[in-house]
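Consider the tokenized backbone below.
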């Protein structure tokens, strides 16, 4: 398992990496760093970085993308991530989100704790599958990578893990958006809990 980490030369990114890399070492997760830039208009260069990552890993069945501000929740484990990756392949998903501060159009899949979604926000840890590579390489660049994914729907099926395996670092502004959006992960997860927990409980007999 290799995390392809998107980062910048910004001081905030450097500080985030100092926190993240020891955590990855704890989980025995290998990683590779890819550097993007922050433009004057704060347009997300993540699109260009991810397209380069796809080109570098085009023969792989899937690519794990991580931002430098990813935070693992209590639900995270390498085993769980591998489980959801394998199940996503079975469902022929194009993209898997491990946590989203905004999403909509969620539906149940045949896999417990894995939802379909029409769109999501939060690219702190996502998985791209082989079926998405050509589509993403040929797509136009939205302001944010999630915009790019949303605008090429329904060509790609999106999956969302629930509960979330990851969130973004709390209490810090997004480098790109210049505002603190990380508080919304909890709000969105609570919304999904109210929508789907009763169904999950009925299925398991709890």
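A designed sequence for it:
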């Amino acid at each position: 398992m290799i995390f392809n980490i998107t980062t910048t030369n910004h001081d905030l990114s450097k500080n985030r990496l100092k926190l993240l890399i020891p955590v990855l070492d704890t989980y025995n997760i290998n990683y590779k760093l890819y550097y993007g830039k922050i433009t004057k208009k704060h347009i997300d260069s993540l699109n260009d970085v991810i397209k380069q990552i796809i080109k570098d890993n085009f023969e792989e069945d899937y690519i794990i993308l991580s931002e430098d501000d990813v935070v693992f929740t209590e639900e995270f484990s390498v085993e769980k991530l591998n489980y959801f990756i394998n199940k996503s392949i079975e469902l022929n998903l194009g993209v898997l989100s491990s946590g989203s501060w905004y999403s909509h159009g969620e539906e149940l899949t045949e896999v417990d704790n894995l939802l379909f979604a029409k769109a999501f926000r939060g690219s702190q840890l996502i998985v791209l599958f082989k079926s998405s590579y050509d589509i993403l390489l040929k797509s136009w660049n939205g302001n944010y990578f999630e915009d790019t994914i949303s605008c090429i729907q329904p060509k790609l099926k999106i999956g969302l893990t629930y509960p979330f395996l990851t969130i973004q670092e709390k209490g810090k502004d997004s480098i790109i958006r210049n505002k603190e959006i990380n508080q919304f992960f909890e709000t969105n997860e609570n919304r999904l809990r109210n929508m789907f927990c009763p169904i999950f409980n009925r299925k398991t007999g709890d």
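The helical segments are 11-26, 46-56, 78-90, 130-138, 145-151, 184-204.
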